[in-house]
Fold these 3 entries.
Entry 1:
Amino acid sequence: MKNEGIEMRRNGMLLPIASLPSPYGIGGFSKEAYEFIDLLEETGQKLWQILPLGPTSYGDSPYQSFSTFAGNPYFIDLDTLAEKGWLTKEACEASDYGDNESYIDYGRIYNSRFVLLKQAFLNSDILSDEKFTEFCKANQHWLPDYALYMALKNQNDGKSWIEWEEEIRLRKPEAVECYKKELEEECNFYEFLQYEFHEQWTKVKEYAHKKGIQIVGDVPIYVAFDSADTWANPELFQLDEKNLPLGVAGCPPDAFSATGQLWGNPLYNWAYHKKTGYDWWLKRIAYCFDLYDIVRIDHFRGFDEYYSIPYGNETAIDGAWMPGPGMDLFRTIEEKLGKLNIIAEDLGFLTESVLQMLSDSGFPGMKVIQFAFDPNGGSAYLPHNYPENSVVYTGTHDNDTTRGWYHSTDKATRDFAKEYMNAQRLDEDDLAWDFIRLAMSSKANLCVTPMQDLLNLDGKARINVPSTLGGNWTWRMEKGQFDEETVKRLKRMTWLYERLPRELKRK
């Protein structure tokens, strides 16, 4: 597909794969994904933004993954496996995925999904497939380590690798070889899952390209401590002689949190990365652009300065800002991989050096409508302040829905919003669309709207509350929820603010 880049005026939707409708408890690479792409085309949207695709760990957050390279097995379409003869349709339908079509029950899915996937593997004869062999060879730099890590994790009742026996925890060569032989079938199973994930996702992406849709992926800056990345490559991180973190990631106290945010991710050993020519990062970014057309890099500020919190602290209060690689990393990426379509997540308090790094990179930053309405005025998030080289959102995966936000924010903020929009009142039945209109009418080249706002849903549809554990990442779109009236409205507004593709403008 011709890459139209991010300089052209375009619209898109934000909808995680997991939030797609599905009869199997969670969205995936099923016919509903293809139907959603059809919807994007019909309404004149050119972008589909998703969340990270990695296998989720405890808390089900896509930003805490067992691997930065691996894909989430939950997204593998069971009907496709049945069509290959590896499962029966009856077995797929008989499993318990939960009984709420607007909610993901991860506990039930975990217990049901892997039984079916293991059965598919045993029926597949995948080891004799040349394409599978080629896939494994092409991904040698991460796949064997990930497969062994997952097999070991299962053998250790799901415990973090830091709790394993010392020989394998520290990856003594003899122990690694011994466990590879002992757990060979389980390792093959996890390699099979990654192959099938990649095959199915590639077909979804190719279908999107045929429809003129680009995929916007999301790359967390950090990896989880309990991950194959950290276990297999401890030299990449700031760890002590026992492979325990010297410091962990987070954010300092601010107006939203008196104790800051303690994320707990291991910090990078940037001196080592620089010494190796950022080899691991080059592999990571190249792999991302195999999966996506445009990549949003989370927590862009962390490349300029990162917040280091002593390991073991219970809050983020006593952390300190430390220097990151800055533009040296991004110059290396451009030199080795070419000029890439990257979006910088530049939200929050930004120093002059971060702003300079953003300017030097040329990456578009993010503008969020919900952050705009400071009653004192002067917010950089007010639409009249947006540069063309930016991406505007009504909200993100970390925000409340626009309707939920409006009703929970203070009166002064609501009054300022109404004054800015020259509206005496905002219609409850139309609330989110007033803010969508504001986003679309801005000068920002790209406008991406969360599906919850297009459906004008209240705070019950919020997908994540940062720094909380439990109850997040569970919202799902119901089949048929995006009705014909909404289709017509979105397409008309997209045309009105000149964000329609050329071919649709002529119709």
Note: Residues 74 and 110 are 8 Å apart (CA to CA).
Entry 2:
Amino acid sequence: MDYNEQELERRKSLNEIIDIGLNPYPSESFEINISSKNIKENYLTKKNDKKFKNVVLAGRLMSRRIMGSASFAEIMDSSGKIQLYIRRDDICEGDDKSLYNDIFKKKLDLGDIIGISGFVFETKLGEITIHVKSLKLLSKSLKPIPVVKEATDDKGNKAVYDAFTDKETKYRKRYLDLIINKSSRKTFIKRSKIINSIRSFFNENDYLEVETPILQPIYGGASARPFKTYHNTLDMPLYLRIANELYLKRLIIGGFKGVYEFGKDFRNEGMSRFHNPEFTQCELYVAYKDYIWMMKFLEDLFVKVCLDLNGNTKIKCGENEINFKKPWKKYTMYEVIKKFIGVDVTNMGKKELSKLCKDLKIKTDKSMGRGRLIDEIFGEKCEKNLIQPTFITDYPIEMSPLAKKHRTKEGVVERFELICNGKELCNAFSELNDPIDQKERFNQQIELGKQGDDEAMILDDDYIEALEYGLPPTAGIGIGIDRLTMILTNSESIQDVIFFPQMKPKKK
């Protein structure tokens, strides 16, 4: 392997450290008793607290300013950065000054991970600093980390430059992105808070968190193209799940009042700033409820998440300010299409819809049934206009083979999607619990598949059998965690909120 000049120097330093008799990768634990954030937030008001007299923390060496027998440095732990003051005679016992003169000054590099102990003080310039009394190398860095550079223009605007302003590099080397970019770390901390907020709301309602199979003999629960694999021992094909739905509803049949799962789903489809082939979805199913109840429940849930995350319901998202304050707007599918294109598609058949799509310059193919055509019209001409949280309800029956027929309206089902910032965030039904109707719907999907629709559902006889034992009236919802995080963190792309998004192999 070819190394650049810096990498060669670091390997030279590594060997010299080993020759001295120091282990650059020690095994024993380094017991930390405080974080940099804790020190910075509390020291000025609690200077006399004993915990500041003997602090122990570890982190990555991010900067160093050597001034003879004393130096200033900066380390970064998981909570942030803090300044260090290091005196040679403090960290070196007796006459042996090699730890400072040889190791710290010459053989440590930016990016090395060190552990320190000492006491906290405030410099004359008001900088909270740790006066280091002991120092230990915990891990030698053999590659240099990118150096962040700041520039200020004539108007006083600051711009930050580093190797990770390039999006592709950020996604391929997320570990470096997290080291360099504070904003990236904040995004993923917020993502965790969003998930925890949702989880706590479900738990407060006494719903059970469960796990269902990722490898499935029959893929179902959504209209999507699956990833296929093969199990050698069982001698059978298996599919990565496209949705959790059918297994979760089996658990409702089993007697649970409410079940939910945060799970990875996989769809062998196109990629964009809103789509990744592997994504996180939270699905919830509650017995004896319907989609009207679920709308109110979702409003309450999202208000809670916003308050937990930001303290209010207003979110800045690109050029838009989105307010999750309830109640949200509501349109039926047919109403919203009429609103934005001025055409009533309620009673249109496939032929008329195909012509309408052509007139609207919407691409279609012969495999698309009536439902897919309506969905294309909505997606191309309506969805992008829905910025504030909006419920779209009462979808054509052809689009929703797992949803219950509407109780009063012909030809539509009890379904809603939540659209926000021009994209779907959630999909919910009054779940179809009639096994005879469900089998007929599956058979209709099979016919669509024969016509060339590669996203059509397939027949799941085991699920039909489960329904025959009785699924209580049930409301179900799937929440796209990645898209929700995009909105709540003001991120441009789904790749910004997934630690390791799927990428094409780099060309050699």
Note: The two ends are 14 Å apart (CA to CA).
Entry 3:
Amino acid sequence: MTNITRRIAANPSYKWWVYSSVGAAAFITVSDQTGTTLALPRIAHELNADIPTVQWMYLIYTLFISALLLPMGRLSDMLGRRRIYTTGLVVFTCGAALAYFAGQLPLLLTAKAIQGVGVAMIQANGMALMAEAFPKKQRGTALGLYMAGIGTGAVSGPVISGIMIDAWGWRSLYLFITLVGVAEIVLSTCVIRDLVSSRDRMGNSNGLKSFDWVGAILSAGTLVLFLLSMTYGHRLGWSHHLVLMGFSFAALFLAGFIVRELKSQDSMIDLTLFKVPVFSLGIAARFLAFISGSPVYFLMPFYVIQVLGVSASRAAFFMLPAPIMMIITSPLSGRFSDKVGTKWPSVTGLCLWSTALIVFTRLEIDSNPAIVSVGMLLLGAGNGIFSSPNTAAVMTVAGDKHYGVVAALVNMVRTSGNLTGIAIGTTILVTTMTSMGFEPSLSSLMETNGAGIRTLESIELMGSFVKGLHLVFILGVCFSTCAAVFTTFRPELQQHPPATEPK
């Protein structure tokens, strides 16, 4: 590092300025996601579109993020994190401004795609910037604070979005995001610096000429095909020729990506990292954990509102313990893992995660909604306690020069795990309801109001839904238990040296 960057890195306040920027970016991106979900019915009505169509706003947003995370992480390692991060904020903010002015759904979908590109650039660097700004002995603390920022957005984002949408319409959400985005661009431009000099950046000898464009296309193609196949598998049927073709081509793209990365001198990601048990088992545990947890956040609102008959506003109250516990436990777990190691805090978090899913298997059509809050509290605590040390372990193994691409990989695994878990959970639920003679659609449950008079048919319908939930959560316990086993049997972090430098 140059003398200037050394002084910046040594300044005790610099890490907190970085956190102010990264935390604000995490907050605004999460608020955008939750706000868009709340706004979908209004958008569908105003733009004369049905719900399945407007749901592409979420799907296209997620696909762009997942597909571009790894390439953007690699680019940040090559060109500098500040450049890619601030550019991502600009792209994201421009997408929000376009969404504000969008008068037709195609233009709105384009805006969400642009935002997805920006979020990929932001998320590929947020963790990396935090890891660079904080000393190695405080890395767990830094990543815990990052997760707390996400939790804060998850708590306050729906509240703020709901108030704005009710008062001024769905466009006000994107106006708010645009204004905050502009402020965030100014803040980040002023405070963030590249602490790794250009000559020390990974693979920057020939600039963009050394970027693995083929590897980027293959990795993006793999994720897009896989996630689309998982998303539409339960809708079209897992034996449908389009679904099978999607999985087949995803496998071919993955094989091509692996071969390309092994042979390339400027690989997208150093695959030798997976030879280190801490890294490979940490990534596997993360993927399984988010597969197990994502169906809860997707399906629980249907249960609370349509089965228990709780209003939407009260339903949000019963779901709040999860993000609140993430805010509390993430920094504490990160700080604790800095002192005792990353392994056993991760195992503890996964045990709480599994306990929460076991609680959810006890739900019935007339359960007390407080049970949902207990389960969400345990799930949020488990998520917060697990995520920070797990991420710290994976990123520390990778080494300083790989922070960007590995941070991108960590976020990509989370996103892919979430979509995979939702697809699997929905499939199990729909299959269960179908086998019991009910319409294989979640929308059929919307016809039943749990607060009204329950007929025998409505009780049986609710019973089929709850039985499907039980099976989903039982499978989730299996996934989270496997994640805990993987973590238990991996070595502690300091027992292994970092992986070899890229070719």
Note: The chain has a mean pLDDT of 81.
